[in-house]
UniProtKB/TrEMBL annotation:
Keyword Signal among UniProt keywords: yes
Domain DUF6799: from-to ranges: 34-90
The name this protein goes by in its record: DUF6799 domain-containing protein
Region of interest (Disordered), residue spans: 65-118
Length: 118
């Protein structure tokens, strides 16, 4: 009995140890600032607040309250309406609200039949 139980116990421990060492997936970069209604807003504690001072990002870029991002190379890049800057310094489009995505998708459906998209 001990001959069977010991190998099973070792196999169970090895399987548990290998699962514990699996690295977790990296979390997506959070938005640091967003241009909305012509104003730069910073994300602090889950709330969008007006950006009042320059915001320095992880890559060394800075975002000004006027909506201009200065890269570490010295180049400047104005942010357009709806663009977000991540904490790592990437510029991405702001996510569309769910209701708007659905209304855009519904434009191509008429009376239950799909229209060909242009």
């Amino acid at each position: 009995m001990k001959r069977i139980l010991l190998p099973l116990l070792l196999l169970l421990l090895a399987a548990t140890a290998s699962r514990a060492q699996t690295p977790a997936a990296p979390a997506p970069a959070a938005a640091a600032a967003q241009m909305k209604d012509g104003r730069m807003l910073a994300l602090k504690n889950g709330q969008l607040t007006p950006l009042t001072a320059d915001l320095t990002l992880a890559n060394g870029a800075t975002v000004s309250p006027a909506g201009v991002m200065r890269l570490p190379t010295g180049q400047t890049m104005p942010l357009r309406e709806g663009e977000q800057v991540t904490t790592s310094g990437m510029v991405v489009p702001a996510p569309m609200p769910t209701a708007r995505r659905m209304s855009r998708a519904n434009k191509h459906v008429t009376k239950g039949m799909m229209k060909p998209m242009p």
